Amino acid sequence: MGINVVRLLVEDEINPLVIGTDRPRFSWNIEPDYPNKQWNLIQYAYRILVADNEELLTEDNGNMWDSGKVISDLSIYITYNGMALSPGTRYFYKIQTWHSDDEYCGWSDVGEFGTGLSTQDWSGDWIGRLDREEKELVPASYMRQELVVGKPIARAVLYATALGTYETWFNGYRVGDHILAPGWTDYSQRAFYQAFDVTNILHEGDNAWGIILGTGWYSGNIGMMGTRIYGNHPSCLMQLQIEYQDGTNEIFCTDRSWRISEGPILYSDMIKGESYDSRLEHEGWTLPGFNDSEWNSADTFESYSGVLQPQNGPPVRIIKDVAPISSYVTERGTTIYDFGQNMTGWTAITVCGIAGSRISINHAEMLDQDGSLYTLNLRRAVQICHYVLNGEDNQCFQPHFTFHGFRYIEIEDLNKDITMISISAKAIHSDTPLTGELTTSDELVNKLISNIQWGQRGNFLSVPTDCPQRDERLGWTGDAQIFVRTASYNMNVAGFFRKYMVDVLDAQSPEGAFPDVAPDAGWKVYKGISSSKWFAPDNAGWGDAGVIIPWTIYLMYGDLEILRTSYTAMKRWVDYLKKNSDGLIRPDYANHADWLSVGADTPKDVLATAYFGYSTALFARIAKVLGNHDDERAYRQLFEQIRESFIRAYVSADGTIKGDTQTVYVLALYFDLLTPEFKQKSAKRLEELIVSNGDRLSTGFLGVGYLLPVLTENGFGDLAYRLLHQEQFPSWLYSVKHGATTIWERWDGWTEEKGFQTPSMNSFNHYSLGSVGEWLYRYVVGIEPDDEQPGFKKIKIEPHPGGKLVSINSKYQSPYGEIRVEWSRDKDRFHMSVNLPVNTHTELRIPGEVILANGPAQFIGTEQNRSIFNVGSGSYTFESVISSEDFTE
């Protein structure tokens, strides 16, 4: 039987052209030829070879690094430990492994990676256009240069970045498929650059190089803060490095010799949409021989003072092409299209019409009662793209540097003489591959799962935004931390959140407070000048993202580095909370609190103190993982003191907690702030509150993520299921029953009785309340990583069947490979099958008494009406006898 080393990754990427570290980490999976018949297969050892010449690897020569045979069963994040890597260089590697009985498994295919440029390697100038007038909406810049390639090319790599957004072209071909590059960072501190292999679109002889430069997040509109938050004039820096077949090299770059002009993009703004006049197109401007004599010389700018580093995390791409499901003509003569799915992106059209004809496309998430687009909730945002035709046949239009949140569009043909050839919606998001698939026997729950995933797609756009439609679209930290576990089940977000944690660390205050939003985007200044009363120097549940996110990424992916790089900042945050407490009780100014709860006002000081305890407890665990035992002891002791203060200040003898809301009990229980006696009483009180509310929740952003886990862990799984299946307001299925295709910002974003909530804050694509997805994977399916062996090296599988669900079919692509769990129940029989990846081991806790087990599972015993088995890789099936104690209707 063959054993294969597959899915080679460097820093979570396949063959990255550029990485942002000189000590890259290697990961791989192991797959037997017949995985369903291979049990208990564990990696015994590995060997990694790295070379600067691929031919050396054919001779098993790793001239940069030969790890030798390393006795280890780890196959994720193995750190390079060879000779110093040179900047801007391509390297090759391969991996071999041995499995359980020390049998050699053979070599993997060859992978590769490239190192980043050093500061001294950048040869060019930052170029762009100095706008003399500071208008809100400015035209994009078109820049070009011609170059002569004098020899046959072996390889050509383009390094590109911008303070703004860019597209770049060679010889009529657009380079790469990145959208809104280089991505959003705090440009006052750092900017990313990308690398592209352009070998196939360059040729010996004359070539043309073109760049379109937009304002982007740098100087365009950001949220409600306005324009020019980071700077006044977008600029770009690019460098083309050519390796010739004769072994020589040549560099071309942006400099003062470049030519610049305005063009058809009259403006393309993140918040305000795009206006494009195709009559102003420069035909052939990206081809050699174009006459640019009437163009101007590009302006040059001072060197960038921040950190310029390779892109960290996945780029934004067009991920799905969605066709409309219906359309109709309005009384005004416009046409409204329904794509059947709320999403983030834009509309692409192909049309014919006479020169000067105008067409506008307006985007919205919802329809009003009269069938028109509902746009009141957009505030200052303008989700409209305007196009002017030049008279050519079959003109294709789609925007360049903007995006919209929408399900519906309205097309207005101002000249009534345009023929529509084709229309589609382009859904975009950071390219985080789908890792979780979950289908249940309940179609309403399946729709909820789809809505959660689409909410994530719509808001994971370089940063985890709060919404994609109104004038906000900010990286709210509280939203991100409550959803990060759900996000990690849905998609591979390891690189995405590593990047986001850089944004969070960049925005930490000098005093140690983690931010409300990251990147900052002028939020701190906005808070200082706003007349609103709900701003605070720190916000519980938001700032705590700086601890919760790294810990969660460590658990889900086994990434120790994110703990190391965040450690000092996390410690400063906990120390800041302690310093700004009174007797370890936090003040009540954390205004966001349990955001958008329903009829339940959780006291701000209770919530803030609870999160203070949680961050402290997590930090103590992180210190233990990193071997910082003095910190572990000190912060474990601090947590015990916080717990004592919490109980003394807020918990009555009967277990009632100050505020008496569902959320105060959920947080106290989940954060382990209660003694065993109080846990039982408080859990019972939580049940009473829910039941007395008609089996309905009242939790907001922070309480909702932990609500069902707390109920399940404290013996109220039946109530958790009743909340899941609840169809009356407020509930998850209320919006599903009323046509939602994403998660709404508010439980009452729209209700039968009142219609739309206040338009000042009412998004219909806002993922936070979708944090219930974590419970569906962790408890209903039962898949969870083990704290001691994270990244699903050891897997805990403990399904909790119940409610209306009679079957589950799930897959999860863990760092070690695919985990499959299926279960069904029929009267007193519970059937379960699992498929586990190579190089993992699992503790199975199966409801009831197992009467049939197929596969070499090791029976451990029974506990709390569950049969416990230890198993290794391979496929297993079980049948058990269950009673009403093992599941709940």
Please tally the β strands and state the result: 49
Proportion of residues in β-strands: 25-35%
Q: Main beta sheet, described?
A: 10 strands, mixed
Helix proportion of residues, in percent? 10-25%
Brief synopsis:
The protein contains 16 helices and 49 strands. With 889 residues, it is of the alpha+beta class. The strands form ten sheets. Strands 20, 21, 25, 26, 27, 28, 31, 32, 33 and 34 form a ten-stranded mixed beta sheet that branches. Strands 10, 12, 15, 17, 18, 23 and 24 form a seven-stranded mixed beta sheet that branches.
How is this structure best described in words?
This protein has about 900 residues and is an alpha+beta fold. It is built from 16 helices and 49 strands. The strands form 10 sheets. Strands 20, 21, 25, 26, 27, 28, 31, 32, 33 and 34 form a 10-stranded mixed sheet that branches. Strands 10, 12, 15, 17, 18, 23 and 24 form a 7-stranded mixed sheet that branches. Strands 3, 4, 5, 7, 8 and 9 form a 6-stranded antiparallel sheet that branches. Helix 11 runs antiparallel to helix 12. It starts with a strand and ends in an 8-residue tail after the last strand.
